[in-house]
Amino acid sequence: MSDYLVQFNNISKFFGKVIALKDVTMKLRKGEIMCLLGDNGAGKSTLIKTLAGVHKPDEGEIIFEGEKIVFDSPKDALDIGIATVYQDLALVPLMSVTRNFFMGREPLKGPPFLKTFDIEKANKIAAERMGQIGIDVRDPSQAVGTMSGGERQCLAISRAIYFGAKVLVLDEPTSALGVHQASVVLKYIVKAASQGLAVILITHNVHHAYPVGNSFTVLNRGKSLGTYEKKDISREKLLSMMAGGEELDKLEVELKEMNRISS
Amino acid sequence: MSTKSKSIKTKTDFNQDERLKKVSNLKVLLNRPELGALGGAILVFIFFGIVAGDTGMFSAYGILNFLDVSANLGIIAIAAAMLMIGGEFDLSIGSMIGFAGICIAIPAIYWGWPLWMSIIFAFSMAVLVGYFNGILVVRTGLPSFIVTLAMLFILRGATLALTRLITGRTQVPGLRVLIENDPIAWIFATDSFKWVFTWLGSMNLITLRTDGTPLATGIPPSVIWFIALAILTTWILMKTRYGNWIFASGGDKNGANNVGVPVGRVKISLFIGTAVAATIFATIQVLDAGSADTMRGTLKELEAIAAAVVGGCLLTGGYGSAIGAAFGAIIFGTVSMGIFYTDVDTDWFKVFLGAMMLIAVIFNNYIRRKVTESK
Question: I want to staple A60 with a disulfide (CB 3.0 to 4.6 A). Which of A11, B27, B340, B362 is the partner?
Fold first, then answer.
C-alpha cells in the first residue's frame, strides 16, 4: 500500500491545440499541506477543475488510497472525499449560516413523504462547527452576508470537512482577505490538516503559502517546475521561480548593461 | 502545529451572556421580509377604519367582499412570490388565467365533457405550460422575463383565436348548471362555514336580506384556497428541504449547483406552480361567474408581482416570503374595495398601487443592504 493518500501522476490536459497542463505530478500524504503556486495563466484553474472532476485529464492518472480512479463528474470526486472550495465559496449571502451550511444536504426528520428540514439539529451542528474554529456564531440564523470574508471562507471549509472531505482543494482562500483575516483562515487550514486531511492550497501569494505549507509545487505555463519539501527551498527561491525568476535575472543583467554604457 | 483556536472579534464579544433573548427576537422580527407588508396592511385597516368605519365596509358582507378580492389576487401572488424567491419571473400568469378558463369552458359546453374532466384538463394544460416555461428558461439560460413575456402573447393570442374558431365568439357562458352534482367543481365553488353565518343571522348579528337569510352566506372558496396556499407555501419555505433549495436557487444559482442543489428542477417546478395557481384562480372565477372570457386575467401577472414585491420579495431572487405576498395581496384587495366606501374617485387606485410598490422596493432594497453588509 502506498504511503500517499492521493497521487496525481503526469496529468495533462489539452483544449484543442492549447496545452493547458503538461505532466503535472502531485503527491499528498494525510495531514500534509501542499501549496500549488503559480502566476496568472499558469494553469491553476485547469488543474483545480481536473482535481474536482469538472475536466477529465487527457493523460495521466489519479490514484486515491492506492486505487486508480476516474471522475466522470464533480459529484464522483466529492463522493470519494475530494472537496473543492472555489473562490466564490458557494455561499448565498442572503441565507442564514445554517441554511448555507446544509445547502443541498439538509438533515431531515419526520415520517416518510412528510420529511421536514430538521432546522434545530442543523442550527446546533452549524453553531458547534463554527465554534470549533473560533467563530462565535451567536445566532446561526443570521445571514451569511453579515459575516466577514475570513469567516465566510472558514464556513465554506468547515462545511466541506463536515461532509466528509479527505482531500481539501482550496482555491485562493486568502486572496480577497486582509492580513488578520488571512491569518485566521491559514490557521484554520493548518488545524484541518493536523486532523488528518490532505490539503491542496492554491495561491499566488508565497507569503501566505510558505508558513503553512509542507511542500510546494510551482506551476508555470501549464508545466510543473517541480515539487519541493519546505526544508529544500527558501521563500525567496520560490518567489523567484513563480515570477519566472530567470526572466527577471536576465532583465537585471540587461539593465546593468544599459547603465554601464550610458555612464 | 498549533491547534489552539482564537476567537474572532465579533460585536458581542464584550457580552458573552447569550440570554439576551428579547433583543434578538425583536431583531429576528425586524429582519423578516414580510414585516413591511404586515405593517402596511395594519396601516390600511386603520386608515379605512377611520375613514370608512361606519359605511358598511367592515360589516360581514363588506369584509367578505374585500377578502374575496384579496384572496383571488393572493392565490397568484403567493405562487409568483415563490418563483421570485427562486430567482425567476412569470409574466404569463394573466394569460394563463384566460387560457385555463377557456380550457374548462369549451370542453364542458361544446364537447360535452363532464365538468370535472374539463377542470382536470385545464390543470394538465397548466402543468404543461409551466413545464414549457421552466424548461425554456433553464435550458436556454435566457431571462425568464423575456421567455414568459413571449408566452404572455402566445397564450393570450391562442386563447382568443381558438375560442373564436370553435365557438365564433370570445365568451363561453352556461357553466352554472353544470356545477351541481359535479364531483370536483364544489372544491372551487362552495361557500364554507355557512352555518356560522346562518347562526349569526338568526342572532341578528349580521345584516339580513328581506327574506330573512343573511346577506353574507359563507366564506368564499377563494379565501379558503388563499389561506391553505399561504400556510402550505410558508411551511415549504421554512420547514422543508425543497424550501431551502428555492432560496438557494434564487440566491446563487452556480453556488447552489456546486453543492448539489438541483437548480433546474426547482425552477421548473416553480414555473409549474405559477401556472397551476393561475388555473386555480381561473377555475374559481369561471365557476363563480358561470362563464369564461378570453380576456380574463389581463394584467394580473403584474398585480401578482407587485403584491409579491410589497410582500418583501427581492427582484433579484433569493429573498422573500409567501406570507408577505399574502399580506401584499390583502393590502391591494382591501384598498381596491375600500376606495368605493370613501369619497375618493376609484381612478386613484392605480396611483396608490404604483406608489405602494415604489415605497416597498426602496424599503426592500434598504433591508437587503442591511442583511448583506459585512461587519
Answer: A11
CB burial of B263-287 (b: ≥16 within 10 Å; e: otherwise) equals bbebbbbbbbbbbbbbbbbbbbbbb
Q: Are residues A30 and A100 in the same domain?
A: no
**DSSP tag of B208:** B
Under a CB-based contact definition with an 8 Å cutoff, are residues B98 and B158 in contact? no
Estimate to the nearest angstrom the gap between the alpha carbon of B262 and the chain centroid.
Answer: 25
So what's the pLDDT on residue B344? Answer: 83
Q: Report A:51-110 residues touching B (Cβ under 8 A).
A: 74-75, 78, 86, 88-95, 99, 102-106, 108
Can you give the pLDDT at residue A246? Answer: 65
**What residues form DSSP beta bridges with B219?**
B192
The sign of the dihedral angle between the CA atoms of B5, B8, B11, B14 is: positive
Distance from CA of A11 to the nearest CA of B (A): 24
Q: What is the pLDDT along chain A (263 residues), one digit of tens a residue?
A: 457 888 888 889 888 888 888 888 888 888 999 999 887 777 888 888 888 888 888 988 888 888 888 888 888 888 888 888 988 888 998 899 999 999 988 999 988 888 899 989 999 999 998 888 778 777 888 888 888 888 898 999 999 999 988 999 998 888 878 888 888 899 999 988 998 899 999 988 888 888 999 999 888 888 888 888 888 888 888 887 777 666 677 778 888 888 887 76
Is A246 within 8 Å of A237 (Cβ atoms)? Answer: no
- Would you call B172 helix, strand, or coil by DSSP? strand
Question: B25 in a domain, yes or no?
Answer: no
Number of compact structural domains in chain A: 3
Q: Which domain range does residue A11 map to?
A: 1-90+159-193+210-230
- Asked if the Cβ–Cβ distance from A146 to B373 is below 8 Å, we say yes
Q: In which residue are the cell numbers 365553488 written?
A: B189
pLDDT at residue B84 in the model: 97
pLDDT exceeds cutoff 80 at B324: yes
As a whole number of angstroms, the distance between CA A168 and CA B136 comes to: 36
Domain that residue B338 falls in: 39-175+222-372
Residues A74, B258: C-beta atoms closer than 8 Å: yes
The CA distance from B216 to B24, in Å, is 44
Tell me the whole-structure pTM to 2 decimals.
Answer: 0.86
Q: Comparing C-alpha atoms, which of B316, B303, B327, B312 is closest to residue B362?
A: B312
What does residue A37 show for φ and ψ, rounded to 5 degrees? -110, 145
Interface of A with B in 186-245 (CB under 8 A): 187-188, 190-191, 193-194
User: What CATH number does the domain containing A14 carry?
Assistant: 3.40.50.300
